[in-house]
Amino acid sequence: MKYDAVQQSIEEFVRTNWTATAIQYDNVAFNSDIYTEYLQLTVVFGEGHSRAVTKGCYRQVGLLLLSARTKPGIGSSRKLQLARLAAEMVISTVVQPVPPLVAPSVNLKTPDLFNDNQERHGWVMAQVSCPFYYDLEY
Fold first, then answer.
1. Are residues 87 and 128 in contact, defined by beta-carbon separation less than 8 angstroms?
2. Which CATH number describes the domain made up of 3-137?
3. Are 21 and 39 in contact (CB under 8 A)?
4. d(CA 58, CA 138)
5. What is the per-residue pLDDT across 89-129, written as a single tens digit (0 to 9) for each?
6. What is the 3-state secondary structure (H, E, C) of 114-134?
7. What are φ and ψ of residue 130, in 5° steps?
8. Which residue in 134, 132, 114 sits closest to 2, CA to CA?
9. What is the CA angle 97-103-105, rounded to 5?
10. Which of 116, 104, 106 lies closest to 69, judged by CA?
């Protein structure tokens, strides 16, 4: 279902369009100790299903999580500002793969916000969750 290519396409989109802070990617070494703020990017794939009666047409859904993390004591306004920037970057966007990558277009929908002021592992966060889907034909 092209999971690897879609994740790579989404990561490249964020890498190209996010300039506010460093970005932490899934399963990639990252030293958060050198930052006071950063964006954590996570792609979660959900249920795929047929989108037509005929065989070979599929729709895959998922969730893009962009967690703006700041050190406690900086104030809620900064993490909310980063969350706003993240939401504005993804709202109702279609992510096109950058050649030579071959991946389907990913349709990002309207994001939601989860604001967490509880300190966890030395960070507080505001998390933008953006549902997405893409269609495939085999």
1. yes
2. 3.30.2000.20
3. yes
4. 8
5. 999 999 999 899 999 999 999 999 999 999 999 999 999 99
6. EEEEEEECCEEEEEEEEEEEE
7. -125, 110
8. 134
9. 65
10. 116
Longest C-alpha distance within the chain, in Å? 56
Name the amino acid, one letter, at 101: L
d(CA 72, CA 119): 7
Tell me the mean pLDDT in the region 77-90: 97
Taking alpha carbons only, the member of 103, 132, 130 closest to residue 4 is 103
Sorted by where each begins, the domain ranges of the chain are: 3-137
Q: What share of the chain is helix, strand, coil (3-state, %, to 5)?
A: 25, 45, 30
Structure-block tokens of residue 102: 């071959």
DSSP state, 34?
G
- CA-CA-CA-CA torsion sign (97, 99, 103, 104): positive
Query: For residues 62 and 43, is the Cβ–Cβ distance under 8 A?
Result: yes
pTM: 0.93
CB contact burial 26-52 (16+ within 10 A = b; e otherwise) = eeeeeebeeeebbbbbebeeeebeeee
Distance CA 12, CA 4 (A): 12
